[in-house]
Amino acid sequence: MKALGLMLAVSWTLGAAEETVSRLVWVVSDLDKSVAGWSKTGTPASAVRKVALAGGSPARSRMATLRFSNVEADLIEPAAGDGLLAEFARRRGQGVYSLVYAAASEAELEARKKDLAARGAAPLFEMKLEHLPGRTVRYCFCDTAEEGKFVLGLAYDSGGPAGQDPRGARVTQFAFVARDLERVSAYWQRLGFPAMTYSHPETSDLVYRGKPGRFSMRLGWQRHTPVPFEWIQALEGPSTYHEHLAKYGEGFHHLAFNVENMDEAIRQWASWGYPLSMGGAWGEKGKPGSGRFAYHDLDSIGGAEIELLWNYRPPASAAPPAQASGWTSLFDGRTMGEWGQSGFPRQPEARVSDGAIVLPAGAPLTGVTWRGAFPKTAYEIRFEAAKLNGGDFFASLTFPVDESFATWVLGGRGGDIVGISSLDGRDASENETRSYFEFETNKWYKMALKVERGRIQGWIDGQRVVDLGFVGREISLRPGDIRLSAPLGFASYNTAGAVRAIEYRALTAR
Q1: What pairs with residue 336 in β-bridges?
Q2: 297 — phi, psi (to 5°)?
Q3: Strand partners, 278
Q4: Separation between Cα atoms, residue 90 and residue 106, nearest integer Å
Q5: Cα–Cα dist 390/374, whole Å
Q6: How far lies 454's CA from each of 177, 322, 394, 462, 488, in Å?
Q7: pTM for the full model?
Q8: Sorting pLDDT into bands at 50, 70 and 90, what band is 453?
Q9: In a 10 Å sphere around its CB, with 0-12 CB exposed, 13-18 middle and 19+ buried, how is residue 212 labelled?
Q10: Residue 396 and residue 383: Cα distance in Å, rounded?
């Protein structure tokens, strides 16, 4: 059995509203086999190098780095007796060892370490790893495993933030199994992390180990990073969740990746030697908000699983006709006009540049709000938007819906979620309007939104991505500062974006 410990490194700024997962560290017993296995999937990998895991010891352990498009993963093969990582691998064999939050400086690491100790998470040990010549990372691990299900860590990287590789797949989820979600959530809250939100998905077409499946789960979500954390409470079984609990106990279960063609992706992963272990579907088949999931067993190269996620997208449909008559411009390309600063806390100033309203990355929100007249329903609005840098929503539109308001999220939670927030109190990432769209940096996209009585539709470059009938449903804004975007406004979240060519027209009431 291949020993595995997994460490997730997270970029963290003291006092910031959101962290960014930037590093995974895998402790394996057969590094060469693990690197070769991941290389078959097309994941870029560095050369193998020797490292010392225990202070004062010679470099006897081995490490290589995988590079996904948004996360790096350090695979570590600890030598016998080389510190607590080797002890962890010997004692447990597999499981999450640590989430490591990256500090911008040594002083910030010390401040965060002191804060965690005051909250009851005392330091366990420290180590330094040389990733490249002249680039050393200092780690400090804290005592959180018993209640938090993994060891929380801190790190300062002398070489600056880790880089990623666009050739690698994009990680869209970090997932864990736990028996008591509320208890785990309460523990992390005491350490200053967000409480979980919960859902109980309705699934269908279930498959388990090559046969019809009968399993269910309850989910807890932490969305303080662009890549969400999914906590899974296994209910009815058998399932791979139950297998993991029996074999390894509570802790890390899988990484997730979005795919365009689920059947093709399942065949591809199986051809690489990683068979389908469990799968199914959610939502009403062929409708917005539905999709499929498939787990593949990677125990042979690391003791974890990967999950493939496919989200239904409505067929491409022509955007609302771009007729010249009836359209009213809301931005002249030269001045802010009726657009004012939204006034989010610590908001940098939005400004006009090169014919667009630029929304600099905020801490976390930046936005502009329309101060002029605008209809409450029966209208279309169209605009162009571009993501300049960052990994979250860059030009989300808050708009009126009768006597309420909603937000069309563009690029949320990792940079690719699109949907309406909120619907029956659930965010875009949690309701049936959720879909995924890969937004390239510095590329302009044409957006169009149509609001009619009982129906909201949205298009990106002529592709319909939202088609929501909301009669009998509750439309509202997500609680919090986004209310400052109402009645009509654009906002970005820890991300720089830009909007231009903003126009609207009233529709004839039906």
Answers
A1: none
A2: -85, 115
A3: 208, 295
A4: 31
A5: 30
A6: 39, 23, 27, 22, 19
A7: 0.71
A8: confident
A9: exposed
A10: 11
